[in-house]
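pasting Cytochrome c oxidase, subunit III for the record, 203 residues
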Amino acid sequence: MTLHADIDASKLPDYSYDFRSPLWWGIVGLMTVEGTVVATLIASFFYLQGNHTAWPPAGTSPPELLLPTLSTVVLLVSMVPVYLTDKAFKRGDPKPLAWMPLISIALALVFLGIKAYEYASHVDFRWDTHAYGSVVWLMIGFHSAHVIAVIFKTLVIVYLARRRYFTPEKRIAVTVNGLYWYFVAAAWIPLYMTIYLGSRIWS
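structre below
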């Protein structure tokens, strides 16, 4: 019988950072799935466009650019406080974690407010008007739901930070939240280009 020496695992770390953490890979998997949905929505938009002689359909005005462009800038700027918070925490300064993400949340709420105002008063079609309306409203609704989700997720992070929950060993939760915020903001760019620029190019 062959004898094997025991391996001493007592000094191995019981936590991990970034790509060494299962939580990191979990959020990457989630972003991959949701990114695929975004790509499918965009492909559906252009598939439907290819089956219509006019896109948007006759009688439907192309979306205005001012409000969506403004909301896009607001959403992109919202990434900055998240980034600064993550960097500060990695340097060993947890204080910004208790308040700086609230700036990002406020900006995300402004984004949603502009979107609600835009589609309530500046869009002349509904989700059940035609195929164009269905796919545009679906893209807007899908992305807005993710903005709402990341807002609540970040509120939990702030709540836990104020209760001094986070230690350097638990940094991965802050990092993962930042990654998801970046994803939600970045995912809006191809949707913006498809809905607002694509609709004008083929109108």
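The mean pLDDT is 88.
The first helix runs from residue 22 to 50.
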